[in-house]
């Protein structure tokens, strides 16, 4: 096998693409009769592949993955003991090997993703993300910071003039309870979608105009999509307008707004009215 690209952004794309193909192959091999088994196998296959390649090609870097044993709770022990290497590391890969296991296990669904992001201590941006890729395997595409898509074509004037409503990506299973009222307030309609990566990717490509989440997430749920979104020129923040931050001691990152910059002030103001 030939060596992967050396540049981090291209490497993230390569890694997301390889993991995505492995997941497509697994879907074909296992079918959809046992969704629980398919979900578990998908998480493991993608995680093991990404971890193996990172150990081989980026051995000096640290990794924060959803599928590492104890990832959701280990931060407390790590902080208490001072043993956590990622908190002192200069480079940390933040990965979600399979974002949207529910959609992955449903035949015909394509709104699931693979997330690969790199956080660096010396990054110029507040979020610290210097490279990232979102693989959308069932859509046969990878969005990456190495070749970010063009800024999606739409102006706020077009939306407010009534040419069409603002399109808000929403969870198909657990949208924030206030989102319906907020959508009515700003003249928007909700577009149900699966994984967080698929929803942010839809903002990046212009299929929707914004994604608001306030139901609880972790860093791996948004790191790669946010890296791509901000490389594209989109707005990304917490729902109170503060900066998203990654490789924090506590990896919980419960809310975010990703949207076109020309909608940011309007949506943040609406969030102040409805998300309290």
UniProtKB/TrEMBL annotation:
Its cofactor is Mg(2+). The keyword Metal-binding applies. It catalyses: adenosine 3',5'-bisphosphate + H2O = AMP + phosphate. SUPFAM superfamilies: Carbohydrate phosphatase. One of its GO terms (molecular function) is metal ion binding. GO terms for biological process: 3'-phosphoadenosine 5'-phosphosulfate metabolic process; sulfate assimilation. Mg(2+) binds at residues 66, 96, 98-99, 221. This is 3'(2'),5-bisphosphonucleoside 3'(2')-phosphohydrolase.
């Amino acid at each position: 096998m030939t060596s992967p690209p050396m540049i981090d952004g291209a490497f993230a794309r390569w890694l997301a693409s390889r993991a995505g193909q492995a997941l497509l192959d697994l879907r074909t091999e296992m079918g959809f009769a046992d969704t629980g088994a398919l979900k578990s196998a998908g998480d493991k296959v993608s995680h093991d592949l990404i971890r193996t390649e990172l150990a081989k090609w980026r051995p000096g870097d640290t990794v924060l993955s959803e599928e590492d044993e104890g990832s959701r709770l280990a931060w407390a022990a790590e902080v208490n003991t001072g043993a956590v290497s990622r908190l002192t590391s200069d480079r940390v890969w933040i990965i979600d090997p399979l974002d949207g296991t529910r959609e992955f296990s449903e035949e015909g669904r394509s709104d699931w993703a693979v997330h690969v992001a790199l956080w660096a201590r010396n990054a110029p941006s507040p979020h610290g993300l210097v490279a990232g890729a979102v693989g959308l395997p069932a859509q046969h595409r990878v969005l990456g910071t190495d070749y970010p898509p063009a800024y999606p074509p739409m102006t706020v004037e077009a939306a407010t003039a009534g040419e069409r409503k603002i399109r808000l990506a929403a969870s198909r299973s657990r949208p924030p309870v206030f989102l319906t009222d907020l959508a009515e307030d700003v003249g928007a309609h909700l577009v149900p979608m699966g994984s967080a990566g698929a929803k942010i990717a839809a903002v990046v490509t212009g299929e929707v105009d914004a994604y608001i989440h306030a139901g609880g997430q972790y860093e791996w749920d948004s790191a790669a999509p946010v890296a791509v979104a901000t490389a594209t020129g989109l707005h990304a923040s917490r729902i109170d307008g503060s900066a998203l931050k990654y490789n924090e001691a506590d990896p919980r990152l419960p809310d975010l707004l990703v949207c076109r910059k020309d909608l940011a002030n309007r949506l943040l103001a609406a969030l102040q009215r409805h998300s309290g």
